Amino acid sequence: MRHIAVVGAGYVGVTTAIGLASLGYRVIVVDIDGDRIAQLQQGQVPFYEPGLPEMLREMQLVGRLSFTTSYQAALHDADIAFVAVGTPSGDRGEADLSYMRIGRAFLQAGLGFGGSCFPKDVKALRHTLDTFGCNTMLVDAILGINAEQRQRAIQVVERLLGGLSLRTVAVLGLAFKPNTSDVRESPGLEIVRLLHAGNALVRAHDPVVGPQAVGLPPAVAYFDDVYEMVTDCDAIIIATEWDEYKKLDLPRLKELMRQPVLVDGRNIFEPARMLELGFCYRGIGRGHMPSADIISAHARCS
């Protein structure tokens, strides 16, 4: 049986280690964070990923997965070592190591990409191009448009409501993507901050991420129940495409809201159905609705 060492007990390292152990390899994970290692040794995953805690405990039980803070213990008998530590950007945007872990999910229309890898690696690519005197217009446009998508969602809400000040807006989703507790570079958090800056009365919800994990502004109200949160709201913004949101009771949602404005930052609903239900609906990145539909939708908010 091959011995594998994984350096770094973060999102990538722990998930990789558990996957390798499930394939029959003996894996040891090393990290300098003693508290995190102790948590993992007790069979607890320090972040959210569906099914991972059960797999972790199973691999520990059969003796194929262990955790340590000692590099010597981890690497001494290792046949292969995976380095899964962060690659933070320097002051000028350079990266020590840059690679791209990326699928279709990152390329869907909507509020844009987030997370710890893609934004950082695109910035690192820009720095590399700049270093070698190459044209950076394409990468600059990618970063600029990605940032503008959040502003675009705010502008849509502002236009449909006739302003943001003292309007109650609910943000659904704080994690940067579904099925994770990772909030790094989260579009949802940026939406919350922009609404707060616009003097809106902001409410927030996420199925996994709690308020203590993200440091929400004190004025932002966090809710555990979506239906309680949307009661008497003027607008909803979908920021993360959680399955829980796709299965919401939409007629009930509409009845609870003060104004049925829903801006779908992840395009999880069909526009025709939403308009049929009486929502003032706009999907970010779907293109502009016909003017007649916009007028009709706006009239429903009056």
Question: Mind sketching the topology for me?
Answer:
Elements: E1 3-7, H1 11-22, E2 26-30, H2 34-41, H3 52-61, E3 65-68, H4 71-75, E4 80-83, H5 118-131, H6 137-161, E5 168-172, H7 187-197, E6 201-205, H8 211-214, E7 221-222, H9 226-230, E8 235-238, H10 243-246, H11 250-256, E9 261-264, H12 271-276, E10 280-283, H13 291-301
Quick tags:
4-stranded parallel beta sheet, alpha/beta, 302 residues
What can you tell me about this protein's structure?
By secondary structure, the protein is of the alpha/beta class. It is built from 13 helices and ten strands. The strands form two sheets. Strands 7-6-5-8-9-10 form a six-stranded parallel β-sheet. Helix 1 links the parallel strand 1 and strand 2. Helix 1 packs across helix 3, helix 5 crosses helix 6 and helix 6 packs across helix 7. The longest helix has 25 residues.
CA radius of gyration is: 22 Å
Query: What distance separates the N and C termini?
Result: 69 Å
* Mean residue pLDDT: 88
> How does the helix and strand content classify structurally?
alpha/beta
Helix content range of the residues, please? 40-55%
Largest sheet: 6 strands, parallel
Instruction: Please list the strands of the largest sheet in the order they lie side by side.
Output: 7-6-5-8-9-10
Strand content: 5-15%
Return the string of H and E elements.
EHEHHEHEHHEHEHEHEHHEHEH
| Overall geometry | globular
Please give the oligomerization state of what you see. Answer: single chain
Treating each run of at least 4 consecutive H or I residues as one helix, how many helices? 13
* Poorly predicted spans: 291-295
Question: Can you count the beta strands?
Answer: 10
